[in-house]
Amino acid sequence: MNDIFIDNNIAKNFATPIDPHYKELIQWINEFDKDLVEKEPEKLLDYAHLVVSQKLLVEYLNSSRDCSKPNAIPSIISRLQIQGRLQKKSKTEIEDFKNEFFTKRIEKSLLSNQEDHPHIVCVLISNRKLCLTYDDNLTADLKDFPGFTVRVEKRPESLNYK
To answer: Is the pTM of this model over 0.90?
Structure first.
């Protein structure tokens, strides 16, 4: 499955991207052949899937609420949900992971704020463990989380997402 976690600090700028690398990322996310997937349902896994939590969806919508452009993150979320390409991690999945892996020692070592901890879990329980974010503390926490190998980048061209 071609899944990816995109932090709100990147996704909030999707509506009017200037950078060709972000345009290419958005094109990859939007690419979908409904007819092919209807004929061959297993092909759904070949297309981009966005990893989210309820918390991240709220962040997305709060930062782009009034934007109705086709590439704005609320529009992308709507399309992906209809197409079955939104990988929403449940509160239970996130809490179960935190209970198992967020020891007191690990929690004390985390640099990111408490609100980003569900984001850490979403990336760690995703299939490919790929993340785009500008947040240096979130990046450090993901890269240093024991027992997991995560790829975190600030720029899409640095992340082998295709």
So the answer is: yes
